[in-house]
Design goal:
four-stranded parallel β-sheet; 28 helices; globular; disordered N terminus
């Protein structure tokens, strides 16, 4: 009787299954005999070649938004004292290498994927190799080449190989697969939009203000201080993520793309609870926040923070460091700015910042933006290196890694960042020695913190820019809101002892840091036209290095555990010197 009662449901299910199978067979049969569409060069047309509007890089997160509340509820169960012993409390290791506190669902996924791969060589989460390589072949087509040296497709192919390294987790591959496909799709959509609207290429990008220098040198403070000037166009996160079609100034604050990106942000907190809380200790960002423009070169395969997740000896890392192929990245960068500017009154002056990218490839940047205004921020590198490395080891990067890899990669990643600082100092010194050195304005951390508006007045005067009363008032209000010394409410202070502890656990000796960065850098000169200020800046740096050496000498001469006491003494020496 029960069997007869349910037979209609069983029949319905079988009919649906049969129809699905027949539909799949029909699609295969008709697809097999359908000639592929060819472009003007006789090459097969990929579906992304028909994109004109940039896709949502967070589409996956948007499509599963209905289950995010459930995932977030499960994550909160770990905070219940009775349940945490059974679910496994989130690992909170020492501050210098905290393993990312992933939600339980994603921790289980990562462990299952790791065990399966260890035993069988198979993966639960795999990169879509064939689909991704097919998109790379689109970038190889002549119409998508930005210049003769453009080999963005090779960069993306090497990125794919780097993603399949053993230290990348299943969650990391899932996230990277989504992002990487989105970056290529957006790149193609940008070119398609410009091809369909050729007038966009006539939009002038005049004298963009670009902040460069080593990271953690108050570049963000300078960036957001300048951003108070209403005459400057500042990129917000959502428009960098989905840049075409161009935003309309009349509806800018109501653009629906803001909600799409916001949903994607929410998914990060579902994957890694407290993700934003952890990352915001180092760098505050949000959908409507003014953001670094590094994502624009992601569309040419040149990664900033995400690239740090890959091993430094990977082929992708070597490709990323090579300046020979970066002009194409800046041509893509300019196309995006032209699209974003196209509905605004002309000309538009942009305010930009991406120190770890722009500082390394200044010559290539200046080929595309020859009249750029370059603001170079300075601070004692031996003081900011630990702060930057802590940011590198934050969830922004390490969410992509397997559990426990942070401690394994700590020393390698720290040395890679020291090499990055060297490359930045060398690149700036090389350009400073050319005629483009006159386009640089040097900002020292101690001067900026002591009197921000004095630096602003000098900067505007140096470049013949008008500081309007509205801009001045907005800047003063911003400074007042940040408190004494320009310290943002979002960031905590790191003590000298913590810096010394980090250097010790990273296996770095302060003498080596000081020596290498001193050799790579050139004294700030030539940009501001103020001889005394240049001399003061150079003397400050020399005094800081001497204090570091003296402190290190006073701290002991041993190795191993003695390194921490020497680094601590050295940093105490630096603390007494204005930076």
């Amino acid at each position: 009787s029960t069997h007869r009662t349910h037979w209609p449901a069983w029949c319905g299910a079988m009919i649906l299954i049969t129809l699905s199978i027949l539909g799949a067979v029909a699609r295969w049969l008709f697809g097999a005999h359908k000639a592929p569409e060819l472009d003007a060069d006789g090459l097969p047309v990929h579906p992304i070649e028909k994109l004109e509007h940039a896709p949502n890089n967070y589409e996956l997160a948007s499509s599963i938004s209905f289950i995010l509340p459930l995932v977030e509820w499960i994550n909160r169960l770990e905070d219940v004292p009775v349940l945490s012993p059974f679910l496994g409390a989130k690992d909170m290791a020492h501050w210098w290498t905290p393993d990312v506190p992933l939600g339980i669902i994603f921790r289980m996924l990562n462990k299952a994927d790791f065990w399966l791969h260890s035993w069988t060589g198979l993966r639960i989460v795999k990169m879509d190799r064939e689909g991704f390589l097919a998109k790379c072949r689109v970038l190889d087509k002549p119409k998508y080449k930005q210049c003769p040296s453009d080999n963005s497709a090779e960069g993306f192919r090497l990125m794919l190989e780097a993603c399949e390294s053993d230290h990348i987790s299943a969650t990391g591959r899932m996230m990277l697969n989504q992002l990487m496909n989105g970056w290529i799709d957006t790149r193609v959509a940008i070119d398609n939009y410009v091809r369909a609207h050729p007038e966009v290429q006539d939009v002038p990008i005049k004298r963009p203000i670009i902040i460069i220098g080593c990271p953690r040198t108050a570049s963000t403070f300078m960036h957001k201080l300048l951003a108070q000037d209403p005459a400057l166009r500042k990129p917000h996160f959502w428009e960098l993520a989905i840049p075409s079609p161009p935003p309309d100034p009349a509806t800018y604050d109501r653009d629906p793309r803001r909600d799409l990106v916001s949903t994607g942000f929410r998914s990060f907190d579902a994957i890694s609870p407290h993700f934003y809380e952890d990352v915001h200790r180092h760098h505050y960002f949000g959908v409507d926040e003014i953001e670094e423009d590094s994502v624009l070169v992601h569309y040419a395969g040149v990664l900033a923070m995400h690239g740090i997740a890959f091993k430094g000896d990977s082929e992708y890392a070597q490709w990323q460091k090579c300046p020979d192929n970066k002009e194409a990245a800046y041509r893509v960068h300019k196309k995006v700015l032209q699209i974003l500017s196209s509905r605004y009154p002309q000309p538009v002056q942009w305010l930009l910042k991406a120190p770890t990218i722009h500082s390394c490839f200044l010559k290539e940047l200046l080929k595309v933006y020859p009249d750029a205004i370059l603001i170079v921020t300075h601070r004692q590198p031996v003081e900011v290196l630990p702060s930057w490395c802590k940011f590198v080891l934050s969830p922004m990067v390490t969410t992509l890694w397997r559990h426990g890899m942070k401690q394994v990669l700590l020393q390698a990643k720290t040395r890679e960042q020291l090499e990055l600082f060297e490359r930045i100092e060398r690149a700036i010194a090389e350009v400073r020695a050319t005629s483009a050195g006159a386009q640089m304005f040097d900002v020292h951390y101690k001067d900026l913190m002591a009197d921000p508006m004095k630096i602003i007045h000098e900067c505007y005067s140096n470049f013949g820019m008008n500081l309007s009363p509205e801009a001045k008032q907005a800047m003063e209000h911003y400074i007042a809101g940040r408190g004494k010394g320009g310290q943002s409410k979002h960031y905590g202070k790191v003590t000298t002892a913590e810096h010394a502890s980090f250097l010790d656990h990273a296996g770095l000796d302060l003498d080596e840091v000081v020596d290498r960065l001193s050799k790579a850098s050139a004294p700030p000169h030539g940009a501001n036209g103020k001889t005394q200020e240049r001399a003061n800046g150079t003397a400050t740096k020399a005094n800081g290095n001497a204090a570091a050496h003296n402190g290190a000498a006073a701290g002991g001469n041993g190795d191993g555990s003695d390194r921490e006491s020497r680094n601590g003494a050295a940093l105490n020496g630096l603390a007494a010197v204005p930076t």
